[in-house]
């Protein structure tokens, strides 16, 4: 029988903290208990310093740990090690100076069973409990009802096994209760099974009628329109304003914006033709302002897209600087100004576009837009002073131009 003084560490202590605990101990022989991943095991020099320190103060130490690799290194420098606390008797641990460095203190004498002994005890206990429960269940199932005495015996037995007990009334109802008119009568399982079969047959018959009989008596009508749901993201950038002094004061600005768009289309009806005229189009448009100033679009502003769709803003829209706004649109059965605006054609890359009557300054800026293949649509704006100004809708792949400088009644579309 061995009696030792044991110091327990949590493994995070430094060499200085460990030596301080050893020096404060009054015992000449100490056992140091460390976890597997103690910090001191990572530095072999610290272990050597620990041994030298103990030799100087003339104290014998034994390191206890389950880290087999660390034990080999510790023993190689002359320190005795043990894999675990394999003693029949313990003296109380010394109380260290720092409480946080000693979380566990053994103060009782005990024998620690190994894992195999624990598993055998658990297995024997499980078998005993299972046998008791099987006997109880057999007793309950073999009786049509449980008398009070039997129920009490069952309850006591279950309580000894630490199993919760809920009494169940298993008495068979008397014959007179079966013949009474009970509004909550329970349907038997055979009846429910028959009803389920009838419902399944009726459902299959109904599906056969819908799929075969009814379509044979109908005339298929191909829709003449298609409804398209569109969601657009439009990015505003590079704002440019052009001024024509000869125009009336309220119409003296042509507002042009180059927008980047992303399209998502969802067809709701079958296509009759490949050409889409913009009828019944609806969806939403997200206008994104990437500039450092607010952008305001008037109510009559129209957005022209490559697929011949024109969206007219329902109201005045102000897009905050470096922000965005989402508006919904719904086109009527027929666009008031025609779904295809003006003439449509192609312009090759690098080819200049000349517009009769267009101011020279504006013509130069139009030429800048011809660096890519263009789809051109032209509309004419008739002003109050009988002056004419031609504006361009330039669709650059997935980009488009907004041009707006007059009220709704001033638009005139020509083909």
Could you name the key traits of this structure?
single chain; about 30% helix; disordered C terminus; about 425 residues; five-stranded mixed sheet; 3 domains; flat; four-stranded parallel sheet; alpha/beta
Determine the structural class based on helices, strands and strand pairing.
alpha/beta
Instruction: Please provide the ordered H/E string of secondary-structure elements.
Output: EHEHEHEHHHHEEEEEEEEEHEEEE
Main β-sheet: number of strands, strand sense, barrel status? Answer: 5 strands, mixed
- Percent of residues in beta strands: 25-35%
Report, as a whole number of angstroms, the end-to-end distance.
113 Å
On the 0 to 100 scale, the average pLDDT is: 57
3D shape: flat
SS element count, helices:
8
Number of strands: 17
Identify low-pLDDT runs: 86-110, 168-180, 213-230, 237-279, 333-358, 368-415
Number of domains: 3
Strand order of the largest sheet: 12-7-5-6-16
Radius of gyration: 46 Å
């Amino acid at each position: 029988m061995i009696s030792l003084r044991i110091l327990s560490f949590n493994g995070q202590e430094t060499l200085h903290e460990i030596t301080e605990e050893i020096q404060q101990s009054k015992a000449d022989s100490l056992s140091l208990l460390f976890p597997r991943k103690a910090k001191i095991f990572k530095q072999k020099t610290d272990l050597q310093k620990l041994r030298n320190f103990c030799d100087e103060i003339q104290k014998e130490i034994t390191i206890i740990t389950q880290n087999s690799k660390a034990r080999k290194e510790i023993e190689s420098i002359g320190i005795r090690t043990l894999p675990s606390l394999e003693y029949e008797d313990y003296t109380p641990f010394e109380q260290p100076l720092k409480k946080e460095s000693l979380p566990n203190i053994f103060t009782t004498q005990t024998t620690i069973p190994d894992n195999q002994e624990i598993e055998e005890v658990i297995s024997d206990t499980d078998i005993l409990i299972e046998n008791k429960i099987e006997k109880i269940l057999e007793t309950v199932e073999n009786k049509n009802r449980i008398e009070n005495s039997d129920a009490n015996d069952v309850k006591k037995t279950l309580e000894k096994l630490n199993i919760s007990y809920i009494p169940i009334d298993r008495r068979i109802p008397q014959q007179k209760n079966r013949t009474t008119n009970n509004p909550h009568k329970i349907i038997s399982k055979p009846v429910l099974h028959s009803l389920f079969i009838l419902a399944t047959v009726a459902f299959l018959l109904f599906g056969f009628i819908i799929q075969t009989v009814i379509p044979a008596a109908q005339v298929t009508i191909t829709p003449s329109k298609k409804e398209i749901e569109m969601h657009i993201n439009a990015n505003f950038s590079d704002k440019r304003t052009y001024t024509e002094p000869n125009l009336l004061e309220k119409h003296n600005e042509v507002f042009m914006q180059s927008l980047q768009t992303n399209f998502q289309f969802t067809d709701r009806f079958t296509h009759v033709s490949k050409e889409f005229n913009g009828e019944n189009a609806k969806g939403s448009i997200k206008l994104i302002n990437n500039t450092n100033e607010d952008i305001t679009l008037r109510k009559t502003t129209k957005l022209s897209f490559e697929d011949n769709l024109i969206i007219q803003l329902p109201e005045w829209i102000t897009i905050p600087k470096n922000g965005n706004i989402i508006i919904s649109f719904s086109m009527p059965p027929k666009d008031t100004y025609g779904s295809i605006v003006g003439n449509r054609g192609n312009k090759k890359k690098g080819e200049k576009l000349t517009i009769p009557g267009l101011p020279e300054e504006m013509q130069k800026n139009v030429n800048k837009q011809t660096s890519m293949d263009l789809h051109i649509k032209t509309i004419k704006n008739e002003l109050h002073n009988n002056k004419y100004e031609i504006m361009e809708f330039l669709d650059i792949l997935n980009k488009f131009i907004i041009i707006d400088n007059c009220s709704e009644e001033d638009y005139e579309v020509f083909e």
